[in-house]
Protein: Signal recognition particle receptor FtsY
Organism: Gracilibacillus dipsosauri
Amino acid sequence: MSFLKKLKDKFQSNQSKEEVSDKYKEGLSKTRKSFSEKINDLVAKYRKVDEDFFEDLEEVLIAADVGVSTVMDLIDDLKMEVKRRNISDSHEVKNVISEKLVEIYYGDDNEESVGLNLQDDALTVILFVGVNGVGKTTTIGKLAHQLKSEGKQVLLTAGDTFRAGAIEQLSEWGKRVDVEVIKHSEGSDPAAVIYDGIQAAKSRNADVLLCDTAGRLQNKVNLMNELSKVKRVIEREVPNAPHEVLLVLDATTGQNALSQAKTFSEATDVSGIVLTKLDGTAKGGIVLAIRNELGTPVKLVGLGEKVTDLQTFDPQAFVYGLFADMVDDEE
Ligand SMILES: Nc1nc2c(ncn2[C@@H]2O[C@H](COP(=O)(O)OP(=O)(O)O)[C@@H](O)[C@H]2O)c(=O)[nH]1
Ligand SMILES: [Mg+2]
């Protein structure tokens, strides 16, 4: 059975898997449309797989923001695989591409999706960082809702004391998903409010504390100082915390997201990426570029604005979301 058929069977094997793959398909519809159109054009143009085919394919992948060096690796792998399997019909290459995309994401790692590092019987502290407008506050709201529906007690802390309205925005989310928000006034010290958040989380015996922060990239020195101070407070107050430092990146900003990731990694130890607004771009290939060029796992993806549109990143569901339209016209 072909790789894509296997993925399809997997996602249709039970209701919850099918729901996940439907979310990905919906969220990735812009990328998928543009991608499948181009791949189908390619296959129509070249019946046989040759150098020119690979050159055009390279362009299609780069246009989807897969990232130049990732594309080079992928094309090399594809050429080898095509040779090994003795494939000459360009139709058959779709399966090899989808298979290699999944492989490139996992690299040498275990094939299970990574997920968040949540503590079983102790407080988990998650710090969100990233520039303004990428979706930090929204992601915190969505994640709070998700964790709460799993039965966890969640607390939010409004560490973005810099941007006007940021505290209010998090408070709105708190009301919406019925979770308490610890806040100070605008302009106050972010480390102080996060300290209070931790004390509140301890005294309420909360399971998870989600910390919002400001994203001032204009002044890198300030940002670094602020983030290290916040982190020091968390480290001092909770053993082994923060359990995650999640860098939030906006998929619609393309390669710029990669340079933000580099800057933030210099300021703090980023443990995972949240890639938002995948629904708003036709260039969802950025997921692969991030993974391959930064080595940091994508832990969550934003596939829309609804509270249920935040998903744990699943590379197979992602790749299936890209190729779903092409599964049935095989064989
Ligand atoms: N379409 C879409 N919009 C999103 C997603 N995540 C966040 N947004 C929107 O992005 C905008 C900025 O989000 P916000 O949380 O305020 O960003 P912050 O400045 O990093 O806290 C808001 O209008 C959100 O609704 C997503 O996954 N998909
Ligand atoms: Mg915010």
